[in-house]
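Please decode residue identities from the backbone states below.
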């Protein structure tokens, strides 16, 4: 019986490796009809926006905007631009430490989120058409590298507003 064991062990190990390889292949790539775009582990981005607000700007010509983009999909995307009738230009800004710099896009990771918050990454609106009032709703259209644009209504909050989260 002892001589048969190494052969059984090899056969069992080979069968286990084959089964594990098949399981891994089924979980990776763009299988499952997700129509993957080659990013991440297959699949497509599935984006939603929440927590958007615009503090009432203290000045008449510029404002900042904040929101969260959630991605429950299996592929990353990028926020490439934002448009609004309120401003002639909206730029994306990244913040590292105390340094703020304008960037061409912001990453929205697969199964992750992009947080635009006070003191962090954010939107800068310049050349405003008017100084919005508290309670007003401003339309933003978010544009992405691969996903369809998302239009949202953003409430104007008091200048000192900070979300509870």
């Amino acid at each position: 019986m002892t001589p048969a064991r190494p052969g059984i062990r090899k056969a069992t190990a080979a069968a286990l490796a084959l089964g594990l390889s098949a399981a891994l292949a089924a979980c990776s790539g763009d299988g499952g009809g997700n129509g993957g775009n080659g990013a991440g582990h297959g699949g497509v981005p599935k984006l939603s926006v929440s927590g958007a607000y615009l503090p009432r700007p203290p000045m008449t010509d510029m404002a900042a905007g904040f929101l969260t983009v959630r991605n429950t999909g299996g592929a990353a995307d990028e926020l490439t631009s934002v448009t609004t009738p309120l401003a002639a230009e909206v730029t994306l800004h990244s913040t590292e430490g105390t340094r703020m710099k304008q960037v061409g896009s912001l990453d929205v990771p697969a199964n992750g989120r992009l947080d635009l918050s006070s003191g962090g990454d954010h939107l800068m609106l310049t050349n405003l058409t008017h100084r919005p009032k508290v309670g007003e709703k401003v339309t933003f259209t978010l544009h992405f590298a691969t996903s369809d644009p998302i239009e949202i209504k953003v409430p104007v909050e008091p200048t000192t507003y900070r979300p509870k989260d």
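Observation: The beta strands are 47-55, 62-71, 77-83, 87-96, 99-103, 106-108, 112-116, 122-128, 137-144, 150-157.
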